[in-house]
Write a structure and sequence with these properties.
Elements lengths: L1 H19 L9 H16 L3 E6 L4 H9 L24 E7 L5 E2 L13 H11 L3 E2 L11 E3 L6 H5 L5
Antiparallel strand pairs: 1-2, 2-3, 2-5, 4-5
Helix pairs in contact: 2-4
Length: 164
């Protein structure tokens, strides 16, 4: 009788472990997506048109981006390999501005709405008010177009299957 209990208990433990093994996301987190949409709307209300240039990114796509400026042509644009970016977990977005001619630009001084404030800095303020962390605040490798929501989870937590 004791052996039956031990087997049943062991199987229950295995079930718990399986439930903690959360699959990788394949799209932007719902909260992040809602906040992205809210950011676009807030910016538009201020006369600022923004374009989301990246959101969810697979590990394979991340590795290709990481290779840029290293083993592939182009400038280095990230220090994160696949699985090391909040984009890989659907928790990050990148943005750019759209100028009055409809061109996508990354000009941090551009003032398209003419209020004597950089549109870029206005978008950053809006994003922070919505709960985003800005890559421009990082001490090393500043990533000015980048916003993320980590929900208190580190990359290591996410790699280990924890999800918001």
């Amino acid at each position: 009788m004791l052996s039956i209990f031990v087997i049943a208990y062991w199987k229950e433990e295995q079930k718990i472990d399986l439930q903690q093994d959360t699959p990788l996301p394949t799209e932007l987190n719902e909260t992040v997506a809602n906040k992205r949409d809210e950011l676009i709307s807030l910016a538009a209300d201020k006369g600022i048109n923004i374009v989301i240039t990246a959101d969810f990114r697979s590990s394979e796509e991340q590795d290709k981006l990481y290779a840029q400026g290293r083993t592939a042509s182009g400038d280095v644009v990230t220090n994160a390999k696949g699985g090391e970016s909040y984009h890989n977990y659907g928790l990050a977005i990148d943005f750019a501005l759209m100028n009055l001619n409809g061109e996508v630009i990354w000009d941090m001084d551009y003032d398209g709405n003419g209020n004597a404030k950089s549109d870029w800095s206005e978008v950053v303020e809006m994003a922070k008010s919505l709960g985003f962390e800005w890559g421009g605040d990082w001490r090393s490798f500043k990533d000015y177009p980048h916003f993320q929501m980590d929900f208190g989870l580190s990359i290591e937590d996410l790699q280990n299957g924890k999800r918001p």
